[in-house]
Design a protein that fits this description.
The chain is an alpha+beta fold. It has three helices and three strands; from the N terminus they run αβββαα. It has a three-stranded antiparallel β-sheet with strand order 1-2-3. A hairpin with a 7-residue loop joins strand 1 (23-24) and strand 2 (32-39). Helix 1 packs across helix 3. The mean pLDDT is 93. Keywords: Endonuclease, Hydrolase, Nuclease, RNA-binding, Stress response, Toxin-antitoxin system.
């Protein structure tokens, strides 16, 4: 596994999303959390499935895309706030 892109935990992904302005939607009885953000008239929705943590590169890339960014940008934020 590349040290440039280490696996991320659920807590780390949620910290990145909160930094980016996403908020968790209230949920009932599911392990999947929905994080949402409206920006320039577009609604971004990121699904975070905490039982799958630490997340694979495929899931991290998917969550980054749902947030409207690349995996590289997602990790840049991670390094900034860690």
């Amino acid at each position: 596994m590349s040290s440039q892109y280490p696996p991320l935990t659920c807590k780390e992904v949620k910290r990145i999303l909160a930094y980016l302005g996403f908020v968790a939607r209230p949920q009932k009885g599911t392990s999947h959390e929905q994080w949402v953000k409206e920006h320039d008239g577009a609604l971004y929705k990121v699904t975070v499935d905490c039982p799958k943590s630490p997340f694979t590169q495929t899931l991290i890339k998917s969550m980054a895309a749902q947030a409207g960014m690349t995996k590289k940008e997602f990790y840049r934020i991670f390094r900034l706030i860690k």
